[in-house]
Amino acid sequence: MTKLLPKPVLLAALCLLATGAQAQTVLTFGGSDAIGSILDRQNVRFTACVNDKAAGRLKVNFIQGEQLGSDVQVIEQTMQGAVQIYGDVLDWYANWVKDYAILAWGFTFRDADHMQKFLDSPTYAAMAEKLRKEQGLRILAAAPTQPRILFSKKPVASLSDLSGVKMRVPEIKTYLTLWETLGTRPSRLAWGEIYLGLKTGVIEAAEGPISSAYSAKFHEAAPHVIRTDHLMSSAHITISEKAYTALSPELQKLVSDCAVEAVHNTRKTAQAETEEVVRKIAAEGAKVTQIDKAPIQQRAKDGVAKMEKDGAWSAGLWGQIQKL
Question: What is each CA distance from 32 to 100, 111, 190, 318, in whole angstroms?
Answer without folding.
Answer: 19, 25, 10, 29
